[in-house]
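Students often ask what a holo structure prediction actually looks like on paper. The answer is less mysterious than it sounds. You provide the chain, you provide the ligand, and the output is a string of discrete structure tokens encoding the 3D arrangement of the protein together with S-adenosyl-L-homocysteine.
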Amino acid sequence: MTKATERRREREALIQIIEEEVRQTEVYTGRSHLDLRVLNALEAVPRERFVPEHELDCAYANVPLPIGYRQTISQPYIVALMTDLLEPRPSHRVLEVGTGSGYQAAVLSLLVDRVYSVEVVPELAEQARQRLSDLGYGNVDVRQSDGNQGWPEHGPYDSIIVTAGARDVPQALVEQLKPGGRLVIPVDANAHQMLKLIRKDEAGGVHSADVLPVAFVPLVEPPPVDITRRGK
Ligand code: SAH
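The corresponding structure tokens follow.
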């Protein structure tokens, strides 16, 4: 079997594992299956190109993997679930906070018009930008910045996905959501994290629902202003 065929089979097997986990977690998520378009997108993205060389053998295991800088590429099931929760449409403009490897952005790019992704670690932002461009994902823009502020220049967004655990829902992200938009974000709650789906209704009202307990690396807060240096 060629390497490419082997990878394709691994991806097909991964989709079945994801579908199985979706059924097992239905009691939390209320979803017994995911949108076929979302599963097709996961099947199309070569995850082995987003993981470090020494993790290649695990590229299609349904687990998160280290990508350096104490960060991880998320578990495929979680990527699938979060993508599905956004209800992506071909006309959508989506903001991602936490580019990491760029894998989630690549999956989204196949489902929507444009993905704007922000990453706080400069090296990860640069690597992801290069990787996404090498692989031909031309509708993704990556910039290095603090995602707590969103990316106001391109907003408002049809949906926003945060792939790091926040202490609270950043107000800037709610503001950058269109009426009818969806924000998917892991939020700390009593020493655990809860994946939340936040919806902004057409009148601008904001509604939050718990989806699933999860474990993401933390969304870093910007460093506090150093008042001792002020005016110097
Ligand atoms: N979506 C990624 C997984 C990201 S892990 C993927 O598909 O590979 C979470 C990422 O969020 C890390 O890369 C981390 O550096 C980044 N991050 C943490 N705090 C952030 C912040 N305040 N703004 C932007 N990115 C942040």
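The chain has a mean pLDDT of 95.
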